[in-house]
């Protein structure tokens, strides 16, 4: 068995916050390194994703969600990449190989060996396994993006939206418009991530901005936000528009409440008259390797057809601050905590 420390650090919820979680709502605590049992793998985490849905889990989750809520004292969790330290003899895994899993926010984790697959070297940067490109691709294909479509991506500068704009273009969209809360992010969305135009919340009525950015109307909405963005999309929708609802950031990022509701008032007459189709998409949270998807994504990355924007935050001790900064809108793209080698 490889040598490893007897203790490691993990981020725990200290108290249920009121409003956006702050660093003091968490503790970075020491815990014994877990011992793998029969058929289990010990991994040393290398990277983990700081994701918006944690706000909902911290608030207690919602009925029907794939993950239960967190209580004070619980360690956080989420998508991670870990390096195998020990693995069952005779199995397919070897020490040093990288695997994806959902036990982030800690330095060491024990996983079921049967649920682990080596990530290999398909992607030019292993951190790209934490991208939300696959979520964006699957949701956009469910919305049946067609050549020439006008696509509106709400929350276009976040971890999902920064990939969705680029993928909509690759699927044939004729015009791609995104929304954000920052003029600086809007500029980068257009310059770097495939958007033809970006509208900015707080810079005037969103419906008016979207009408100017998409004067011929919207065929597809990729909705990360809800709220004002969803109302604007209904107003701009063409007949037979297809809406796919992926996130609810207007509720999750609100400085009021617990992030477990995202109410919005819509004009149902417009839904009827325009014959809008609206579906919900929930990422199943898979951690395994899909070879077909990886080959396609790797090709896009290597050819430069897609960029994976991410912010790298060093050290688990900085993870609570990274979560607060991400929820406060400081960063563009995916926020990743990198643990020391």
TrEMBL record:
Record's keyword terms, sorted: Oxidoreductase
Residue ranges of domain Enoyl reductase (ER) in the record: 21-337
Gene Ontology molecular-function annotations: oxidoreductase activity, acting on the CH-CH group of donors, NAD or NADP as acceptor
Superkingdom in the source lineage: Bacteria
Classification via PANTHER family: PROSTAGLANDIN REDUCTASE, PROSTAGLANDIN REDUCTASE 1
Protein name: NADP-dependent oxidoreductase
Annotated source species: Actinoallomurus iriomotensis
